[in-house]
ATP-dependent RNA helicase DBP3
Amino acid sequence: MSRKEHKAKKRANEDEDDIQFKKHKSNGKEQKVRDKKEHKKKKEHKDKKGKNNKKEKKVKRDNSETTDGEQIKSDVEEKTEKSAGNESIKDAPGGYRQSEDLSNIPQADVDIFYKENEVSVEDKLNYNYRPLLSFNHLSLKPEIQSEISKFPKPTPIQAVSWPYLLAGRDVIGVAETGSGKTFAFGVPAINYLVDNRSQKRGVQVLVISPTRELASQIYDNLILLTDKVGLECCCVYGGVPKYEQREQLKKSQVVVATPGRLLDLINENSVDLSQVRYLVLDEADRMLEKGFEEDIKSIVKHTNTTDRQTLMFTATWPKEVRELASTFMRDPVKVSIGDRDELSANKRITQIVEVIEQRQKDRKLLDLLRKYQSGSKKDDKVLIFALYKKEASRVENNLRYHGYDVAAIHGDLSQQQRTQALNDFKMGKSNLLLATDVAARGLDIPNVKTVINLTFPLTVEDYVHRIGRTGRAGQTGTAHTLFTDQEKHLAGALVNVLNGANQPVPEELKKFGTHTKKKEHSAYGAFFKDVDLTKKPKKITFD
Ligand SMILES: Nc1ncnc2c1ncn2[C@@H]1O[C@H](COP(=O)(O)OP(=O)(O)OP(=O)(O)O)[C@@H](O)[C@H]1O
């Protein structure tokens, strides 16, 4: 096997755990610079906000009138006024037309929806579509309409993003964990295919996700739609044989994939992406970070680069990835639900943070399991996060030794073992799952009552995603996090997330301040190399 082939094979099986480990190495310095930038940006943001607040206060105080009596509309009213439906919404290129029912809804109802859900839409082309307050405001293919109408109504991210997506626009969708982002990007994609069935052959919709389990879950969601409209969907990820995937790719119009395996299949000419008209990056900020960025650039170049709709969906949208994201997209509409500019967690999750010594963790974990999974709670599902696979293996053995029937997911296990563990946990065969960050994002496991962060993740974004495995689809949940001085450089950002969700901030955590001190992680030693932070994201040129 040539060096190139060896490298490709290794990458195709590279896993989130391995990528996380690499990422950790380069993390130290970036964190320091990030904190400095964050501090500066926050100061600017505060100054700007101060000015806006004065204006808003003025609007509120004068009951939206200036001193000379002229009516001022708040930003929200201004924005939605134009979309009141009084003007005829131009026929959008993608064929979206605002329904009569929706146009007749009083503007006040639309304003209330925007305010209650803290909706913000940034669209320099000012399409100003109204949010779909009911599935009746949509006219999708009957089979698709019937599948989604099983839910009471669109979630806010679906309600706001669907008109733009059906109109063919690029969209960046940012909404809290567990808020229905999969169908937010999946429904318009499949509807598009049905609308354009006759015109194209081959793979036309491509969804890329950071982990095998999440790719598999997205696939399970999309086949609920594709099976009903006679389309083929397949899922490709590493850790399993390729031959079956090669065969499925030949007849599929929709592909869900992890980057490594997909690139492997591209390089051996087993898949042609030149007809991909609809590209989705799920957990988009993760896909644009180190470890995935180069793979994503390579994949994008193989898609239809002249007439492509590109979507990015995530619960966290750090400033560091926004510039690179914009090089993949054309006039994207940014749809945010909730105050997503600042990193924020799902507010239905009760967040408990405990500062302890590293050596106290094993005992503390047993105490927490007695607290969250005994007596009337003995059947409650609990998800424990370790940081790396070695720690996960050790903790798994320790829990088994103490009589716990624990399932585990981490990079040292075979794909079959990981899939089995996740299914056992989802089906309730085991109500205790131990995972590394391979399970941090996207996994939609019903009724997880408690997330325990045994070791804090590499970034506070990952913390928000981890705890988002509970409190999904409108439910509440609890996250209990053990914090040590190994992670003190993340204390400031964590305090902000806790404050943003009106959660208690322990005094011991405040003592760390916003240190960005270089750290030694006892379990893994000092490991990060200086990175060239002056390097700007490379502009993607479309072939
Ligand atoms: N309109 C809807 N109403 C109610 N529940 C919905 C709706 N759409 C999707 N759901 C359900 O909400 C749950 C969460 O959806 P999904 O996994 O897409 O969330 P997400 O926003 O992608 O979360 P994460 O940020 O963690 O990836 C799923 O069980 C899904 O079936």
Remarks:
- The chain is about 40% helix and 15% strand.
- The mean pLDDT is 83.
- The domain at 81-337 is CATH 3.40.50.300 (Rossmann fold).
- Residues 151, 154-155, 158, 177-183, 315, 442, 444, 468, 472-473 surround adenosine-5'-triphosphate (CB under 6 Å).
